[in-house]
Design brief:
Blueprint (H helix, E strand, L loop, with lengths): L2 H28 L5 H8 L3 H11 L7 H13 L2 H6 L1 H13 L1 H7 L10 H14 L10 H13 L1 H4 L4 H17 L5 H5 L2 H10 L5 E4 L10 H5 L21 H4 L5 E4 L16 H19 L20 H7 L5 H5 L5 E3 L12 E3 L12 H5 L10 H4 L12 E4 L5 H4 L6 H5 L7 E9 L5 E9 L9 H5 L8 E4 L19
Antiparallel strand pairs: 1-2, 3-4, 5-8, 6-7
Length: 497
Amino acid sequence: MTLRPRARHYRILVQTLFLLSFMVLFFGLAVDRVPGWVASILLSLDPLTALGTALADWTIPAWTWIGLIILAATAVLGRFFCGWICPLGTLQQLMSWIAGPERRKRNKINRYRTWFSLKYVILTVILVWAALGADHAGWLDPIPLLHRAVAGGLRPLWFGGMTPGGWVAFGMLAAILLLSTWMPRFYCRAVCPLGALLGVTARVAPLRIRRTSDSACSGCTLCLMACQGADEPLENHRVSECHVCLNCLPSCAEDTLKFGLPVVQHSPEMPPLDVGRRRFLLTAVTTAAVAPVLRATGGGEARAADAIRPPGALDEEAFLARCITCGACSASCPTNVIVSDVGKTGIEGIFTPILNMRRGWCEPSCTRCGEVCPTEALAIVTSEAKQAVDGPAEVTIGTAFLDRGRCLPWAMATPCIVCEEMCPTSPKAIWLEPAEVRARDGRTVMVQQPFVDPELCTGCGLCENRCPVGEQAAIRVSSVGETRDPRNRMLTGRRSG
């Protein structure tokens, strides 16, 4: 049997395997059943994250070189990644199948629309912004988007409560899937910046859908109805929009469509990209002008003091240049302390990871977040470097500060030693001093009042997490004193290096 009748079955099999691999690796990562580097490989298949990181930080870290191999393969095979590998594309296709073929026929939805060129505008914005030092491809890139939505939306159903960042990420995924019931692969066609990058690359691909003859075509439009990518195989084939799904091959009753090299009788001229030079230049210039203003609202010194980055995070500028907001660190965190930010770090820090100490704490012996980071925005640190034993720790993420107005022994004449008991450093960064305080009824109460030694505190947040004071804890961790930024120090000049 030839490729024609089997093409669809081969593709569905491969799509299913990659989708299952994504889910197995994700949940294996969440329950610490797979090595971190294995999970990072799947995230590294994405060419756009590799290109964005290379432009922003002039480096190709970790496994992202695999993405560049995918890009090179696209220049030969076309957009096979979209049609055969991308798990978000597979989910959209599934939703379209659930909606039923009658809806697609009724809406004549598979015709190319000029507004599908929006994805090229988005790609231009992302690449220009990356060239200016900030990689934001992950905001709309399908692989990080899906991973972030699952990490922030589905994982909390089993491993913790939803956060604002999780709601936003899951809402984006839900909207994409819902739109796919109206238009097959809506996101792929109109929004996806990765699809735009692959579409541009695919224009040089020698292997593509070709027509053997115009005269043999009856105009039945069956190929158009079967198409996933709005590449209009019925007319001049738009190779930049073709997902190489090969659905059109078995649908053609006259056998006028072939996938292969240009050895067939008829090879019509390829339609140009529906994006003009003027639009491209205007988008690039506007992005270059606006980006510095937006960058001033987040990152570096503008970052909120209580926005704690995970251990091993690079300095803020380098971190923003490498972080693809994939949510892998959040998915792998055993205490659920890592969440996606949606406000503390400004516009540029949207979806980047921060620590919420009321949800969890940074376990001193854990190094998972650095192990799973596909771009090395989080460097791998050893558990020994995170622990303060017989002196200051080599790696710290902040310093705990006591709010005496909320602390029970200080403000309420109520005994409490939870923070000191929970402190994991040796000697403890939190110590107690006995004090006699007067209650409102005139009684004298003996309490143990806590103090914090900033030299020993690692910022792990266990004290804040376990503080019995409701809502806002009486002891809270600040980014002050983090080892990644020598400028972020207390006035006393702690930790000079």
